[in-house]
């Protein structure tokens, strides 16, 4: 039974992935900031598979390192790391952007991913096996107006994934990225700071991806035989052709 650590596991893509992997016999380490949701998840999915949860904010590097280091013995060997925690904050031209929003995106999407990776990779290197999947974005492949810093953070994820794959190549550690386009999650609600009406409009007039669609892709990626690495996969809904080309009703 493989052990999979998922960050940002309490909502969206992370949650759908946790639910799918629980049904498919993976041992899960679910990480997130919301203790209550983590406890609910542990109860809900604990009936299906072995679960432990880690409450942390990926920005807290000491806490991240400490909690991963002190995992219970049954969960100490991590076969797969899914760096999923990520957020967008604001959608503004660069001259109107907020420094707090920029900090949040860079700290969570880029530095948080690095902190968790730093805590997990050494044991994979030691064993000469393991898999890291970073959740990128179409925003890591092309830049769109007003998304400058978010796109910058996801381009960083793209570059970091490529570099990680090279650096970890001698240790047979598989590294890849899954880059979703528009997925119907609370992503836009967070981006627009709780303005649900504006958030919902983002997904109106076409069928966006659902978190379950990306969970399927992640399950596929981690269930490949050891010689197969899904290195870089961009997934869009049929209505989307690029960040700004969308076939809406
Ligand atoms: C999410 C996709 O188009 O909002 O990463 O940047 S988009």
TrEMBL record:
Superkingdom to which the source organism belongs: Bacteria
Q: Which terms are listed as keywords in the entry?
A: Oxidoreductase
Q: Name one GO molecular function term.
A: oxidoreductase activity, acting on the CH-OH group of donors, NAD or NADP as acceptor
Give the similarity note. Belongs to the short-chain dehydrogenases/reductases (SDR) family.
Name assigned to this protein: NAD(P)-dependent oxidoreductase
